[in-house]
Each structure stands twice: as C-alpha cells, then as structure tokens.
Amino acid sequence: MTHVTETNREPEVIAEEMRRALKAVFDGLSVGGSSPTEVSRALDLSRVMVSRTMGALKKPEPSEMLTSIPGPETIRSIVRASRQGGVDEAQVVVALRAIDEFDALIRGRYGTRSAFNAALSGKNEQAREKFEQSSRYEVYKGMSQIVGAQSKLWLTTMMLVPNRENPSGIDIFTIHGTSGLRRLRPESPVRFVYGVPPEHVTLRQSPQRAEGALGSFFRYRPAPLSVHQENGQIINTFEPDIAGKSALYDMFAEVSIPNGSNRYASNGRTMRGTTVIPDIPVITLVSDVILCDDVFAGIKPELFIYNTMPRGGADIEDPKRDVDRIRTDDRIVDLGIGGANLGITEFPKYTRMIEYLCKKTGRPISSIRTHRVQVQYPVYGFQYTIAFRVPEKPADA
C-alpha cells in the first residue's frame, strides 16, 4: 500500500490536476482515448472500472468527479497498465503523483472513502443525490438481513371524504400494506400490526377492518399469515418456508374510520394527515393522500421526516421532536385531479384499486385530488408524514 500523508490543498484543485493527468494518459494510449471497451481490452483490465474512471472524468463539477471516480488503488492499476498501452513514462509519473495526492486527501484528511464522499456530497446536488441513494441502498441491504425480510413496495393510501352527518367531520378510508414481500431468514418471523381486536371496534373512531376485494388487485400471491391478539392489537405473523427469490407475496389491509378526522383545529391540534413507518426494509415507499370534494381545499400539504430510533414515532406538533427531523430532497408531488397520474410501476393494478375505493365512497375518480410522497430505499426506522395545517373553525360553521 502506498504511504500517504495529509495534503493541505483543496479537493477542487486536486480534482482538476488529476483530471488533466488521467485524460493525458487515456489520450496517450495506442488505441487513443476511445471507448471503455477498447481501453479495457488493450490493457487487460476490468471494463467496469475503466468505464467508471472515464465517466467520472467527464463530470463537470470537481466534487462530483471525486465522488464518482473509483478508489486510488484502482486508478493506479489503470495508470500502471497504460505503460503497456504506449503511454509515455512522464505522463504515467504525473498521473501517479496526482493519484497519490488524491489518496492523501481521503486518508489523511477524512480517514475513509465513505467519510470523504459524505463531506463532498454537500457541495453538489448530483453528488449529494448519488451519495444519499447509495447510502440508503446499503441500509436497505443490511437491515433486510437483520430483520430477515424485504419487500419491493410499501404502500399507504388514505382517502378523506366529508362525513354526511357532521359538517366538520371527515371519514377516513385507508388501504395499506406491502407488495413483493419476501422472507430471507428461516429463524426470523416477521410481525405486522394491522387493526384492532373485534372487541374494540365499537369504540368511537376505532378502525373497522373491511373485508373488501383487495385480492383481485394483488401482483403476487396473498401472504400466508397467522393471526393472534396481543396487548390489545391484532398481530399478523409472516413466516412461510424459505423458497428462493421467486417466493414473493402481497399483504394489504383495508381500514375505515367514520368521522375519524376533522376539517378544523381543535384542542391545540392543527395538523391532519397520514404517517407511514414501514415495518420492513423496502425498495420503494409510496404514500398517497386522496382528497374528495372540498376537503382541505386550498391547503398545501407539508412533508415531515423523522428518525424514530431515539424516541419512537414522532408527534409532528411536539416541538421537542424537531431535533429528530431529517433533511432530505424528498418532496410531496401534486398528482392533480383525476386518476391519470396515479399509476405505480411496482403495483400495476393500483389505479383500479383507487377506482374501487371511489366506488365505495360514491365519488368518481375524475374528481379526486391526490398528493404523493415516493421514496426509493426509505431508511428503515424513518417516519414519513404528509400533513395539512388546518384553520380554526369559523364562527358561523
């Protein structure tokens, strides 16, 4: 391993020097600075590493280039191999010197490549997005192994409809669950909390599980579940035999809460909406709030994301939980009126499922308004809340 010491020069300066030196090496090859395939064949090197290096050199921003390029040892191997490709020794020496300083920047100033990438990610939007996506993917992989399960999609859909008897009240219709669920470890059962025991459903505003025909919308076979009551909750346990990557399942619950929400602030509560904390690591999270008639008309929803690990699920109206909020580039997307933009690649029959909900509530799909949060590799243990800040009740209401 090459011995390195810390450098005092800025990353941007080091990046541009290394860019010039490596471009000179590629241009000096007997095959010319041509395609990664031709270069890798000429030097008998991995095409993937050559392609990553050449691609990084084309990044316009120095920080993006530095976070995209392979590690120093990989780049050194390419430069050393370039000797047999006809590159002048002086160009090789200059390139190796630039790589040594890159190495010194990483190990001397930041310690590790991951710390280096994290530090530079804030300097460039593309670099930050790439770093966050890569980091989320690593969390997804690791937590999937720890939890013993993973899934392709976590979906929560909440439809809000005016209550017929109470002008201020809102009926809540929710479908939530997961598609593409897979069990990974035979010794790790996966448990989900869906709904409340039958003896509790008569309580005011308690969820009532609807039978529905959700199975007709599934993409995969229904998940085999064993159901029991525990501490006032219904626990669904998923523990099928391990049968490879094709053993995928869907699991959804439908819940209705008559008069479960309110148009106006009351008792110090000013926010209305939906909160999602996926029970298992998932590739994609989709959370939709569907508004009917004039519910929350003119109110722009806000997105709150929390790390729940230190103190559990967060009350968005508790200022003490502000310290747990997470800064990300995730946003709420207004899908407009109607069902034209509702489609979800991971769940082909989703629009039909919304038509089913619309039929139950007596609303045409052409009239609904939808707000969506969609996140790739949501961090396991993070809470995603879509909230509407509601007004005080008018005196004449």
Detail the topology: elements first, then pairings.
Layout: H1 11-27, H2 36-43, H3 47-57, H4 62-68, H5 72-81, H6 89-110, H7 113-121, H8 125-147, E1 149-162, E2 169-183, E3 190-193, E4 208-209, E5 221-222, E6 226-230, E7 233-238, E8 249-262, E9 271-276, E10 282-291, E11 302-307, E12 332-337, H9 350-361, E13 369-376, E14 382-389
Parallel strand pairs: 1-10, 5-8
Antiparallel strand pairs: 1-2, 2-8, 3-7, 4-8, 6-7, 9-14, 10-13, 11-14, 12-13
Helix pairs in contact: 1-4, 1-6, 2-3, 3-4, 4-7, 5-6, 6-7, 7-8
Describe this structure in words.
A hairpin with a 2-residue loop joins β6 (226-230) and β7 (233-238). The protein is built from 9 helices and 14 strands. α4 runs antiparallel to α7. Strands 1, 2, 4, 5, 8, 10, 12 and 13 form an 8-stranded mixed β-sheet that branches. The model is unreliable at 199-206 (pLDDT under 50). It is 30% helix and 27% strand. It is α+β, with helices and mostly antiparallel strands and 397 residues long.
Give the helix/strand class: alpha+beta
The biggest sheet, with number of strands, parallel, antiparallel or mixed sense and barrel status, is:
8 strands, mixed
Low-confidence stretches: 199-206
For the secondary structure, the number of strands is 14
Indicate the radius of gyration in whole angstroms: 27 Å
> Judging from the principal axes of the Cα atoms, what is the shape?
elongated
The separation of the N and C termini measures: 75 Å
Helix content percent band: 25-40%
Number of helices: 9
The SSE order reads HHHHHHHHEEEEEEEEEEEEHEE
Beta-strand percentage?
25-35%
Quote the average pLDDT: 88
